[in-house]
Design a protein that fits this description.
This protein is an alpha+beta fold. The protein has one domain: PAS domain (Beta-Lactamase). It is 37% helix and 27% strand. Strand 1 and strand 2 form a beta hairpin. The longest helix is centred in the middle third of the chain and has 17 residues.
């Protein structure tokens, strides 16, 4: 499980979820009503990056059901942030760890801040695992300032 930073509060425990009678779908519906986010999976065996329609939209790309075009994705990431992101993916893949990243994505003529949170998971059928995550926009500058204090 992805470790939580103390500033993120207490994550919803499985026993709390069961005690409250809240389903996984309920949680997704509630969180997505609060904030637009995209879900994705990076298959380390193939190098393919699969993503939800919202992920494509956050990056300003046309949705496809196949893997994302990583050349198009990286072209939309601010050049000063791209090296750090690539190093993060490499470290997560090599060390089997999750991560939190804040970076800028092209949005018209300017850049917007987005955050990706990911965890590594092993895959029983393959020698390597995969990284699964969520990406969301930081629309409010206060969110960025609070994150910068981490």
């Amino acid at each position: 499980m992805l470790q939580q930073h103390e500033s993120h509060g207490i994550p919803l425990a499985i026993d709390d979820q069961q005690r409250l009678g809240v389903s996984d779908r309920d949680i997704v519906d509630l969180v997505s009503a609060y904030r637009r986010f995209g879900i994705w999976r990076f298959d380390l065996a193939t190098g393919h990056f699969f993503a939800s329609a919202a992920t494509f939209d956050i990056f300003g790309l046309e949705y496809t059901t196949g893997p994302m075009n990583m050349v198009a994705v990286t072209a939309r990431i601010h050049p000063d942030d791209l090296t750090v992101l690539m190093e993060t993916y490499e470290r997560a893949s090599k060390d089997c760890v999750g991560y939190h990243n804040l970076y800028r994505v092209l949005d018209g003529d300017t850049y917007k801040f987005v955050r990706s949170v990911a965890s590594f998971r092993r895959h029983k059928e393959r020698p390597v695992g995969e990284i699964v995550g969520v990406t969301y926009e930081l629309n409010d500058l206060r969110q960025f300032v609070a994150f910068a204090d981490d």
